[in-house]
Amino acid sequence: MGKIYYIMGKSSSGKDTLFRKIKQELPMLQTVTLYTTRPKREGEREGVEYHFVTDEQMHIFERQGKVVELRTYNTVHGAWKYATIEDGQVNLAESDYLMIGTLESYGKLKKYYGAAYLVPVYIEVEDGERLNRALTRERQQEVPRYAEMCRRFLADTEDFSEDHLRAAGIKKRYYNDDQKRCLDEIIEDIRYGKF
Questions:
Q1: Is 63 helix (H, G, I), strand (E, B) or coil?
Q2: What is the pTM of this model?
Q3: What is the pLDDT of residues 120-136, one digit of tens each?
Q4: Can you list the domains of the chain with their CATH numbers?
Q5: What are phi and psi of 103, to 5 degrees?
């Protein structure tokens, strides 16, 4: 029976970096590429970070019944959708997986695949440090989207509230104030099933 190790946390908590490093350390974990209608960020590649699709392509997946979970964010640049699509990427009879997403998507995947298959890996960082990281990242963009950065930061306060974390069954937190220590702790827990 395979497991889906599901990395989540507020924006700029270091999820993407930890995801890449975990994948390097544990190459036997398969990954699932999510779909999004949002524009590519500087340095992102189609099929690697996401499958970048149009709204019409997303509607086709919905009509075909292939949407496992779908979230829509009303950003300052319009509605951006993110989805997990039933496209043959996941086979829990054969593999373990490493995925990344939100608390909301974690709940939907847990419902779809079953709680026994989902393992939450919740990343936490102090809010001031997260804001600093977000600002640094946004400044590197060709067209910085500061308003959207602020919207995400504020939305995370509600999306990852203590009540929501409790309701989702999140018990363990990985503090990403020291990336190497955080990474080592996650890898050890995955290797030895310490969940």
A1: helix
A2: 0.87
A3: 999 999 999 999 999 99
A4: 1-31+92-195 (3.40.50.300), 33-89 (3.30.63.10)
A5: -65, -40
